Amino acid sequence: MVDEFESKYEVSQVATFIQTHNFKRVALQFPDELLKDSTEVVRALRKELQSSCEDVKDIGLYVMADTTYGSCCVDEVGASHINADCVIHYGHTCLSPTSNLPAFFVFGKAPINASNCAKHLCDYASSTTKPIMVLFGLEYGHALQDVIKVSNVETTHMSGDTSKIQLHFAEVMGQSMIPTNSSETNCSSCTADGDCGDDAVKRTYRIGGLVWNLEEGQSMEDYSLFWIGPDNSAFVNAVLTFNGCDIVRYDATENQLLTDTSQQRRILKRRYYLVEKAKDAAIVGILVGTLGVAGYLNMINHIKEMITRAGKKAYMLVMGKPNPSKLANFPECNVFIYISCAQTALLDSKDFLAPVITPFEAILAFNRGSEWTGKYVMEFQDLVASTPVGTEITLKEARFSFIQGGYIEDPDLQDADEEDEDATLALANMTEKALQKRDDDIKTVAKGTAKSGAEFFASRSFQGLDINSNSNAPEPFIIGRTGKASGYNHETSKD
Predict the structure, then answer these.
(1) Residues 404, 409, 410, 414, Cα dihedral to 10°
(2) Which of 5, 186, 239, 379 is most buried by a 10 A CB count?
(3) CATH superfamily of 266-416
(4) Ramachandran quadrant class, 179 (left: phi over 0; alpha: psi -120 to 50; beta: rest)
């Protein structure tokens, strides 16, 4: 049992990573569902370090929970509170490149019936004329070689012509990540559609910590996708990014193949609707959803400049994990742009007062003349990987027809854009006049004209829940003890 536990959490590999780089302050990041095992992991890791390291007392292990943003990303903000040298990330991860701290990822080992999975894979491969690209959740990477081995056996024993069956498997980028001075980490210059360098013979694709190559002249539309794993954010990321491919999903929990991905594909229609709605926005809120993923500052600068060029006002908001209650404090914002990793970027904003869109959708909405070809980019690093700050990003867009059920060319696209531009400029002018209107309420903090975003938000009658900042508020009635738990105000020192 102990060996199985240590194998699941890869205790020896983690200890080797710590010792190899001589890290002294190590942050162990656990998601909520694995937090119950954190004490046992620390105990096993401490024991492993003692058996191979003499100065183990100098190594500090700190458990982190309740991440600042999504638990799939390395929480560099939380790790900085203890001046950590590195982060050991446990559980599901998007494997987004970090900005400053080295990281080691323990994906876990989810149970899977490799024989059953390989059988479904071969049956599906024999029913299609396209080659198959096998993608998977990182927690199933430990069983990939078993699936490959059984698939080769199944293909050999299948009756009929099996020479046309072509199976290709993605690989995990790696478990460790050492950020460099460059914003490119773990070959982040390889986009979902692009090459890895001008001299590359093969095209390199990556998504969610997976990487694979295609021969020159081939594209992902030439393949069918076979996904191994649950219906989670990683799967939705793959469906949207490669929405031009036929995709099936093998559920390792139920041991069955699911071919209906219409629910995930409907998300694309919903996102397109939000893009159209965002075009009429006059005030835009930029939600910072990460402070650790490499390149987020460049993306913020691109978005701010793009909004300014569109004649709109932008305000940057940092609030941790957004929810409807938090964003309701900013009713002036007509739309929010959420800058985060690919697997947390899609917020279901049906309960929000204003839509929440991704950087890719913002570029489609605010860059005049941009066109949507049906491709969808989730990684914001891919949008600015080769674009200097200040350069306008242009994308081609094909209008989606809900009647025809697909993307169509719109001959009136240019005229529609001109009408939208006139309407947007009119809204922007009205907003400018509203911001400059004199505030008649003498009790507001920013009496007079609003010259900045801070003054504008401060001019509202609602000033938040900090009762100490309002001199007219009644004195608070304190029940219980006051002070810190280490020494309350009524307690006297025992010294």
Answers:
(1) 160
(2) 379
(3) Diphthamide synthesis DPH1/DPH2 domain 3 (3.40.50.11860)
(4) beta
Q: How far is CA 260 from CA 112, 122, 249, 263, in A?
A: 21, 18, 9, 8
> Tokens standing for 163?
């020479």
Of 248, 327, 243, 247, give the one whose Cα is nearest residue 285: 327
Distances (CA, A) of 375 to 152, 193, 200, 268, 364: 33, 10, 23, 10, 12
Three-state DSSP at 159 gives coil
Q: Using the 8-state DSSP alphabet, how is residue 308 labeled? A: H
Kindly give the interhelix angle for 262-278 and 233-241, rounded to the nearest 10 degrees.
70
Please name the residues in contact with 172: beta carbons below 8 A apart, sequence gap of 6 or more: 107, 138, 141, 209, 210, 211
Task: Output the CA torsion 397→400→406→407 (10° steps).
Answer: -20
Using only C-alpha atoms, what is the Rg of the chain?
Answer: 26
Does this model's pTM top 0.90? My answer is no
Domain boundaries, the chain: 2-106, 114-260, 266-416
Q: Pick the residue with more confidence: 409 or 17?
A: 17
SS3 33: helix
The Cα-based distances of 58 to 23, 55, 84 in angstroms read 10, 6, 13
Q: What would the pLDDT profile of 117-132 be if each residue is shown by its tens digit?
A: 999 999 999 988 899 9
